[in-house]
Specification:
The protein is α/β, with parallel strands linked by helices. About 30% of the residues lie in helices and about 20% in strands.
């Protein structure tokens, strides 16, 4: 039986101990548009207890660099797997999901398709954070503009038609080279930084809230959705194994408290 057919259980049934938490950012770690102080404190407590936190986001590399400087996280996977930041002492190490030499050509192709999408979806535009992106781009349909979901779905089809990968989040259509995703980046980080076996994921938890988290819900046996994931429930190809009672940051804090209780 695949994850799409399985029933989702309350997060209190998740079992430990847990070695690391992989967390989406927007709508999962944030409440509204910010990380609340009590959520930040929960992440600090989790890390102090020996459960490192890794941010996994569709936001740009520029945001990922800032997250690494300002939050208590072990690593950050940005641009849906396109860029990964880790630490080497005080130094930040950046790894791309494609060969660096290929980036100019990918960028040209992405800009061309962005122009086509915006011509066929009036009102669509590149997201305001696209200027901070290195490997992917994003079409804004629901952050600073408001377009019907049908326009976002058309954008996905147009982008995939030319051989790029595209995925819809709650606010953007992120698109880029078809050579990485959130899951592949997480598995690589488990192998290289956490020194774990990517084939044995029961000791790792992923938490998210949106359509672009579906591959993670499929790949991680201990996947969690914060309660606001329910707004996408019928569209999710793969559902999370567990769900919190609370949405957004409150749901993440609920999960953090439970992980501490099962990992002591």
């Amino acid at each position: 039986m695949n994850r799409a057919q399985m029933s989702t259980r309350p997060v209190t049934e998740l079992r430990g101990p847990i070695k690391a938490l992989f967390s989406d950012v927007d709508g999962t770690m944030t409440s509204g548009d910010r990380i609340e102080s009590k959520t930040y404190a929960a992440l600090e407590e989790l890390g102090a207890a020996g459960i490192p936190v890794i941010m996994v986001t569709g936001r740009p590399a520029g945001f990922g660099h800032a997250f690494m400087k300002m939050t208590p996280i072990l690593a950050c996977i940005a641009e849906n797997g396109g860029v990964t930041f880790t630490r080497d002492g005080r130094k930040l190490v950046k790894q791309y999901g494609v060969p660096a030499a290929s980036l100019p050509e990918w960028r040209r192709r992405m800009n061309d398709v962005a122009i086509e999408v915006m011509s066929k979806c009036p009102g669509a535009r590149l997201s305001s954070d696209s200027k901070y992106r290195e490997v992917d781009l994003a079409i804004d349909y629901n952050e600073e503009v408001t377009l019907p979901v049908s326009d976002a779905e058309l954008a996905v089809r147009l982008i995939k038609k030319v051989g790029l990968e595209a995925v819809r989040s709650s606010v953007h259509v992120n698109f880029g080279p078809p050579m990485f995703d959130k899951l592949s980046a997480c598995l690589g980080l488990i192998r290289s930084v956490l020194k774990g076996d990517p084939k044995e994921l029961d000791a790792y938890v992923y938490v998210g809230d949106a359509l672009n988290d579906a591959p993670m819900f499929k790949g991680f046996p201990q996947s969690v959705g914060v309660a606001n994931v329910k707004q996408w429930w019928d569209e999710l190809a793969y559902k999370p194994a567990f769900i919190t009672e609370q949405p957004e940051g409150a749901g993440l804090r609920e999960l953090c408290a439970h992980l501490l209780s099962v990992s002591r």
